């Protein structure tokens, strides 16, 4: 299950985009893109939760992700940051 929304407002609840069950699947890369197709977050070989920051700022909006698993399985979707 990949979350489609998170709220990085420092209240301790849902502050990061975290895929809790990803550790049970062989993982290669996760990338998040803005609406212009620019990569704003990336992690490889180990999933690191995204805090929503882009160049030190949190910008509310919808972003698009691509997650690649071992064996070339790719999942696409969108995630929204709400403040």
Account of the 3D structure:
By secondary structure, the chain is mainly beta. The protein has a single domain (5-81), classed as Immunoglobulin-like. The protein contains no helices and 7 strands. It has strands spanning 5-6, 27-33, 39-44, 53-54, 57-58, 61-69, 73-81. Strands 1-7-6-2-3 form a 5-stranded mixed beta sheet, with no helix packed on it. A two-stranded antiparallel ribbon has the order 4-5. It starts with a strand and ends with a strand.
Helix run count: 0
Please tell me how large the radius of gyration is. Answer: 12 Å
Number of separate structural domains: 1
| CATH architectural arrangement | Sandwich
User: In order across it, which strands form the biggest sheet?
Assistant: 1-7-6-2-3
Helix % is under 10%
Which regions have little confidence, pLDDT < 50, spanning 5+ residues?
none
Which class of secondary structure composition applies to the elements?
Answer: mainly beta
Biggest sheet statistics: 5 strands, mixed
How many DSSP-defined strands? 7
Terminal Cα span: 22 Å
CATH class: Mainly Beta
- State the order of secondary-structure elements, H for helix, E for strand: EEEEEEE
Shape annotation: globular
Mean pLDDT: 94
Q: Strand portion, in percent?
A: 35-45%
CATH topology: Immunoglobulin-like
Care to give the gist of this entry?
The chain is mainly beta.
